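seq as requested:
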Amino acid sequence: MSAGNTVGVNDAARIRRAALATADFVDRNITMICRFVVLVTGIALTMVMTANVVARYALVSGGFSAAQELPERLFPWFIVAGIALAAQAGGHMAVDWLLDRLDSRGKCGLLLFGNAIIVGSYAVLCYQALAVAEIAKIETSPVLGLSGSHGYLAIALGCTMLALAHVCASVRIALLGPQARFAIQYKDLS
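struct tokens:
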């Protein structure tokens, strides 16, 4: 083996390690952000709804006027973060009939093709969600005066995280094979 060939192999190994480390870094950050959002919004939703139920019976006014608006603003963030976590763990509906009949190379090709379609679809959906958020921001909620764009911004952020998660999965599939497509396992979610 020549010295030039050894350098090329070392460079390829270094690039491979860097790509996997970057994919793992991005996936870990998506996981941390989503877990934080699910935790904070879940606690806030529970507290607001519980406080409103108690206030409904304890106060003459029949509850808090903002108690309906807050869940409407928080719920999209809660759902989108949960969807991104589920996608990282393979918690989506899929028919693996064709995938199970392919060899490792065929599985890689099919998964990479499917992920490319998914990333493109999420990019289009993110763009459209941002366009609708721009329109909806002129609407304001009657009690809190919050912009109507929150839900659309949540969709845009969720689509971005889902697209990034699928890019990371594609890096792992291309470099490690189809068995490495999911970043986290369900047991890691607890």
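The chain has a mean pLDDT of 88.
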